[in-house]
Amino acid sequence: MNTFLTIYDKLNTIVSQFFKTLKFKEREHSKGRKPILKNSEAVTAVIFWRRQNIGSKKSLYEILEPSMSYNRFVVALNKTAKYLATIITAVMKFLRKNAHLVKFTDSTELPVCLNKNAKQHKTMRGLSAKSKSSKGWFYGLKLHLSADCQGKVLAIKFTPGNSNDRSIFKKMNDKQRGLFVADAGYVSEELERDFFIEHERLVITCPRKNMKKLSVPWQISLLNLRMRVEIHFRVLKVCYGLVTSLPRSIDGYLTHYIAAIATHLIS
Q: CA 130 to CA 175: how far, in whole Å?
């Protein structure tokens, strides 16, 4: 327990600095009863939850033992998404200032339930869709992520599972410059043409097996480094429990996802 509290206190110090820098308010309303859990404490709690990959909010509640009911605790946590999203945006904006010339973009599936439960799933129905990845069919969302070869996360975007990776690629990387590397799912002459800016921006995609397109050695070397963006997905899923089917509300799902990403960026 002492180890947990030490980690919590360190995270609280980091979150408090973000609140000070970004000028977040500790209370939703200036008047009225003082909340038991301040906004910074709620944000710290969800980051601690993902940092330790704790299975459920109930387990987190039992570890932190806040002086409030479990239901009020969950409501407080599910209100933190807007603060987490702003923190993520601020961190990525800072990282983009010194980003490496070589960048990578990829996407990963985020199932919200088992395939057999897709028709009965209601919570994320408006945001989710059925689609197929390299691992098979899934029902849920996609997380799109761009990072440079030094590991800096530069852009992220959530979309329905059946979204077109190529159109999302252009939107999320529109203001960035450099040499972008992507896998065969992004192959498109239109994308390469529209995204290209002479002396400023170029995208290299991995040719499909049935294509006659050839790559020169330096392109092959860059394509072989695509694992550097996939590592982010692995860390988010394995270490911070990004994929989940436990939340019972849209706010619960979004808070879970955003908390995992925020934890990855600041831990």
A: 30
